[in-house]
Write a structure and sequence with these properties.
Strand content: 5-15%
CATH superfamily of the largest domain: Winged helix-like DNA-binding domain superfamily/Winged helix DNA-binding domain
Strand order of the largest sheet: 1-3-2
Shape: elongated
Number of helices: 5
Radius of gyration: 18 Å
């Protein structure tokens, strides 16, 4: 994901493989990178689009924290959100930060 975030443009599996294998010994296999990118697309962490006969991929989420939040909400749904609300209610500083973020985000 660091490579995807650094590039900020759609990449093919081959382009990603080339980036990851720079100076790497032993090199990663094409199929390994393809599988990981496809799984990340299935989890909606990467977006996949046809480009000729293959796909190009780009990051959907901006950082690792966003991946963690998506995973937590996807796996635990309302229970995760309720737990977060309980934590925010128990900690006035956290609650104030959350309220500020909600107010300032579009």
């Amino acid at each position: 994901m660091r490579e995807m975030w650094a590039v900020r443009e759609p990449l093919s599996v081959r382009a990603m493989l080339d980036r990851l294998n720079r100076g790497r010994r032993p090199p990663l296999a094409y199929t390994t990178v393809m599988t990981v990118m496809a799984r990340l697309a299935d989890k909606e962490i990467l977006r996949r689009a046809m480009n000729g006969r293959g796909y190009v991929y780009e990051a959907v989420v901006p950082d690792a924290a966003s991946i963690a939040v998506r995973t937590l909400v996807r796996n635990f749904g309302d229970a995760a959100l309720a737990g977060f609300v309980d934590e925010a209610n128990a900690d006035p500083k956290l609650r104030a930060r959350l309220e500020r973020l909600l107010r300032d985000r579009p």
